[in-house]
Amino acid sequence: MDAPYLILKKEIFSLFESEAKRLGCQYTVEDIENSISQSKGIGDISSSIAFRFAKKIGRRSEDVAAEIVAHIKAPELVKSITADNGFVNFHLKRERFSSETIEYVLKRGYEDSASSVGGRSRVVVEYVSVNPVHPWHVGHLRNALIGDSLSNIYQACGYEVVRENYLDDLGLQAAEALWGLMNLKRLGVSIDPTKKFDHMLGEIYVKTNKSIETDSGIMEEIRKTNRLMENDETAERKTLEGSMIFEYLKAERETASSFGIYQDIIVRESDIIHFKLFDKAIEQLKAKGIAKLYTEGKYSGCIAMDLGSIGSAGTLTGLKETVKVLVRSDGTPNYAAKDIAYHMWKLGIIKDDVLFSTLVPKQKNGKPLYISGKGGKEMGFGGADVAISVIDSQQNFEQQVVKGAIEALHEGKTKEIKHLAYEVVELEGSKLSGRKGTWIGYTADDLLNEAKSRALKLISQHEGLGEDEKEQIAKAVGIAAIKFTFLKISPEKKIIFSWDAALTFDGDSGPYCQYTYARASRVIEKSGIRAFDRLPMINAVPEEAFGLIKLLALYGEIVEKACRECRPNIIADYLIDLSTSFSTFYENVQILKKEGSERDWFLSLVFAFRKVLGRSLALLGIDSIEKM
C-alpha cells in the first residue's frame, strides 16, 4: 500500500488528466507529474499545470486555473481547492492527513523499502574500480561513497542491486607496481610487515616512477613485465596474483569496511580477455557494422569505430575525433574496447560466461564476496537492466563512446547505461597524483583516523558517557562527518573539504542529523513509551508539527527522485530539512509537558520522525546514534 501523500498525488494526477482531455489539451506524464509539489506558499500542495495547459491552448493561465478549480472534485484528504495567480492549490484536512501519515510510517511503511518503483529490475552499480597500485585517496573515497549510497537508494526503490568492483589488474600502472615489488633491492626498499599493504605498495609505485626518471632502461623492463604478467606460467603472473593482487584486495577491503562499504563481486580486467568477452564484443561490433578493420591510411591494421555512425542516437557530443580505435595495430585492446565488452556482459548482450569463486565467505555485512577467475562457476551476475558506472569526469568522452556503442548494438534500448561522473576533492589546493605520491597523508585511511581523533575530542566533552561509548560514538560521528560532506555536494561539483564545516553539531552536517536523532530518542526514553498499540487523536495540528508531517510524507517521493536522478545529495538535503523541521517542532512544542492523548499524539509523531530520519541516514551509509 502506498503512503497517503503518494495516493493523493495519484488522485490529483488523474484529475488533471481528465481536465486535459476536457480542455482538448495535449499533455505528457511529465507535464502533470512535474507540476505537482508541496507548496510553501498558498495551499499545502500546489500545481503549475494551468501554465502548461494555457501555453498549449493559447489562453491565460489564471483563467485556466480558475476553470480547473471549478470543474474538479476534492479528493478525500483535501478540504478545499483554490486558484491563485495561475496556480491550483490544494488545502489538506490537516488532522486526518497527519494521523494517516503517522499511522502509515509506524505501522506499514518504510520497513524494508521506500518505494516499489524498481519492480525487481536488476541494476549493476560499478564503483571504486581503482588501479591496485596505491591506497584509496580522498578522490577514490568520493567514488566509493557515491556508489555505495546510490546502491542503497536503488535497493530502497525495489531494484535488485549488484555492487561491482572492476579490478584493473592489467596495463602499465599494474606493471609498474609489480616491477617495483619484484625489484625491491634496486629501489632500496624493504617489506615493512607493520604497514598496510596498499600503503606500502603505493610507496613502491612512487619510487618506481621516480627511478624511471633517472634510468631509462627501467621503462623497457616494465613493458616486458607488462607482457609477461599476462602469461599464466610466468613468475610475473604468479607474483601479480599471489603476492600483489590478493594482498592489495585484502587491504582495500579493510579500508572499505571501516567506512561500512561492501560489494558483491569483483571482476578482474584480465578476465574480460580470458573469458573471451572482448573477442565476442568485437565480433558483434563488426557484424553490426559498428566497428571495422581498417586496411589503409592512418588507422591501417586497427579495429575502430566511426563515431559519426553511433552518434545519431544523440549520445556523442563535442567530438574531437571522428574515429575511435578499439584495437591497436599490434593487436592490443584499449580501455574503451574492454569497457564496451564489460558492459555488454553486464547487460546480458554477451551471455554469462564469466566464472566466479568465493573470495570472502562472510563479510561484516553478512554477505559473501565473489571474484572472477578460473576454477569458479557461472553465477548469473550479468544480464542487468541498468548499468551504472561511477567514474570521474575525466572519463566523460570514453563513457560516451561506450554508451554510444551499446545503444547502437541494442537498438531496442531496453538496456540502459548511466555514467555518474564526479569531480575532484580538493585538499589545500593540491591535485592528487598516484605516480608523484601526493596522495600520501591524504588517503581515506588518514582521513578516517583524523575524523575519529577530532570527533573524540568533541564527544569527550559530553557527560554521562563511558569511555567505550565515547570511542564508538566518536567513530560513528567521524564517519558521518566525512560521508555527509562528500555526499551533500552534487557529484558534478568539486569538493573543498573543511573539518570545521564537516565536524559540527550545528547546521548542515552529518553529526547534526545524528544529534537530532539522539534528541528524538531522548524524548522517547523520557516518555517511558516504547510503542503504540492504537494511535491517539488530536483536535488541532499546530503549524510546527504539520510542517514536519508534510516532510515525513515526502520520504518515498524523495528517495524515488534521488534514484531517478542518481543524486545522493537529494537525500542529504532532505536530511537537513527533516532535522531542521524537527528542531523547530521540538523547541516550540513542549512535548513532555503535554497531557493525555495530546501528549501521546505528539510522541507518535516523534516515533515516526525518528524512523524516517534513521532510514534516510542509512541510505547514505550513516549510523543512527541513540544518545550523544
Structure report:
With 628 residues, the chain is of the alpha/beta class. The chain has three domains: 89 residues, Gyrase A, domain 2, CATH 3.30.1360; 300 residues, 3-Layer(aba) Sandwich (Rossmann fold); 175 residues, Isoleucyl-tRNA Synthetase, Domain 1, CATH 1.10.730.10. Helix content is 51%, strand content 12%. It contains 24 helices and 17 strands. The strands form four sheets. It has an eight-stranded mixed sheet with strand order 13-11-12-7-6-5-14-15, sandwiched between helices. It has a four-stranded antiparallel sheet with strand order 1-2-4-3, with helices on one face. A three-stranded antiparallel sheet has the order 8-9-10. Strand 1 and strand 2 form a beta hairpin. The longest helix is centred in the middle third of the chain and has 24 residues. The protein is globular, with a radius of gyration of 28 Å.
